[in-house]
Amino acid sequence: MDEEGPDPIDRHVGTRIRGRRVGMRISQTKLGQAIGVTFQQIQKYESGTNRVGASNLFKISQSLGVDVSFFFQGLLEEAEGPSGAALGMADQPQMSFYDNPMNSREAFELMHNYYRVADPTVRKRLFQLVRTLAFSEAAGADADGGANGEVRPLEPDEQ
């Protein structure tokens, strides 16, 4: 790779592979065995250090139960400029991929553990708690004096 690091597209594909694998609770070793590579190679794919070849991307999609296109979802939005139009061959600003907190290990683990909570009511309450904390922090930064600390009940469409 060049001095700038992995290609943003390779990182995006790798992040999508990792997200799906973690969501399905499959280890890097098991995925590697399923497609005939080492777990170290899976690590390199997931970090974007090594580009995934077409044949291995197809095998990974089969092993993870998704279409190959799954790994490219969201890529176009990341490559678009502020106006919403793709820049094409023009000089492109740095893709927002690196700054997206949803691509972090913490976000994947949070999502994975959230869905491990078996009781749907508890999951909804956990969701509500996190949302309330997020909104209370945002409201605390507002000029109107901040949040009142109340937790509102779930709306019928949220239950």
Topology overview:
Blueprint: H1 8-23, H2 28-35, H3 39-47, H4 54-64, H5 75-79, H6 105-116, H7 120-141
Task: Describe the structure using short key phrases.
2 domains; 434 Repressor (Amino-terminal Domain); mainly alpha; globular; single chain; 159 residues; 7 helices
- In oligomeric terms, what are we looking at? single chain
CATH fold description of the largest domain: 434 Repressor (Amino-terminal Domain)
The chain-level structural class is: mainly alpha
- General shape: globular
Structural summary, described in words:
There is one protein chain. This protein has 159 residues and is mainly α. 52% of the residues lie in helices and 0% in strands. The protein contains seven helices and no strands. It has helices at residues 8-23, 28-35, 39-47, 54-64, 75-79, 105-116, 120-141. α1 (8-23) packs parallel to α6 and α2 packs across α3 (39-47). The longest helix has 22 residues, at 120-141. The protein is globular and about 50 Å long.
Compact summary:
The chain is mostly helical. It has helices at 8-23, 28-35, 39-47, 54-64, 75-79, 105-116, 120-141.
